[in-house]
Amino acid sequence: MAKENKWHVDFTGPHMASMYAIETYYVNLVSPFQRVEVAKSSLFGKCLILDGKIQSSEFDEYIYHEALVHPAMLAHPRPRTVMVIGGGEGATLREVFKHPSVEKVVMVDIDKDVVDLCKEYLPEWHQGSFEDARLELIHADARQYLEDNEVAFDVMIIDLPEPVEEGPSRRLFTRQFYQIVKKRLNENGIMVLQSGDFSLTFMEAHSAIYKTVASVMPAAYSYHVFIPSFNTDWSFVITAREGDPFKELDSRELDRRIAERDLQLKSYDGVTHQGMFSIPKNIRAERDSGTMIIDDDNLLTID
Ligand code: SAM
């Protein structure tokens, strides 16, 4: 059966790849910014693939999006204003809108084609979030937007594709970009971003992103969760404009805040959080041994 399928080959660097049996391609085009595919994998259901890399799948997108959104939103005492950078599928929005204190969300995604395709083909992801009256959706380069607009947010969630060569997100992983983000955070402001593969063999990118964020912000933490459709442990970096609000977030306090906000979650809770923030010694050592600080003159490139 699988032999009759087409195969999507997702490269993890030059020496390794994961192969996905694909039953159908719903979309296969090149937008002004990137190659866009929406495919049905035999194992993971519908998948969004940008520039050859799986962004999320129907089967387990909730693991990724709950992990990306809720640690940051729960670390803030009362998030009212949120910026989503990228996040084309609308699932990041879906998770943000679960928090009852949210009054306004600005989502800036550079690619209207991706967002329109996600609206049409991935309703299970956004579940109507694009129709929420609290949303302002802007199609622009998010760095340019932040440079041009005197805006500030309680929480900024950076849900960008990996910085592949010629991809649209490369200048949003630099020291200069995080300096702009820091200025756009309100008091108590929290920032979180997805930061790539977290396996021992492919730690360079995470290490560079973590160290770059830590060079700008007072306290930065790595965390991780296994995403079956990525075939690897996936990482995030979370930080705050001042102080260290993550210290007080033990599992009991998190479960209390989840209950207080009546969040209906499938994967993330206090116990999951403990696992996500627990990082093996050898992985910490590998991360900490990296020396790269990503700069506008020294960009990170993922193969
Ligand atoms: N979940 C994802 C992953 O694993 O990498 C990322 C999600 S989402 C599909 C990424 C979005 O970021 C895309 O819709 C893309 O158009 C958008 N994007 C890329 N570069 C951008 C930029 N410079 N400014 C704003 N949005 C950007």
Please outline what is shown here.
The protein is of the alpha/beta class.
What are the SSEs and their pairings?
Elements: E1 6-11, E2 17-30, E3 35-41, E4 45-50, E5 53-57, H1 61-75, E6 81-86, H2 91-96, E7 104-108, H3 112-121, H4 123-126, E8 135-138, H5 142-148, E9 153-159, H6 175-183, E10 185-197, H7 204-214, E11 219-227, E12 232-240, H8 251-260, H9 270-276, H10 281-289
Parallel strand pairs: 6-7, 6-9, 7-8, 9-10
Antiparallel strand pairs: 1-2, 2-3, 3-4, 4-5, 10-12, 11-12
Helix pairs in contact: 7-10, 8-9
This protein binds S-adenosylmethionine (SAM).
What does this structure look like?
This protein is an alpha/beta fold and 303 residues long. The protein has two domains: 6-57, Spermidine synthase, tetramerisation domain (Spermidine Synthase, Chain: A, domain 2, Roll), CATH 2.30.140; 61-289, Rossmann fold. Helices cover 29% and strands 30% of the residues. It has ten helices and twelve strands. The protein has a seven-stranded mixed beta sheet, sandwiched between helices. The chain has a five-stranded antiparallel beta sheet with strand order 1-2-3-4-5. Helix 2 links the parallel strand 6 (81-86) and strand 7. Helix 7 (204-214) packs across helix 10 and helix 8 crosses helix 9 (270-276). The longest helix has 15 residues, at 61-75. The radius of gyration is 18 Å and the shape is globular. The relative contact order is 0.14. The model has no long low-confidence stretch (mean pLDDT 95).
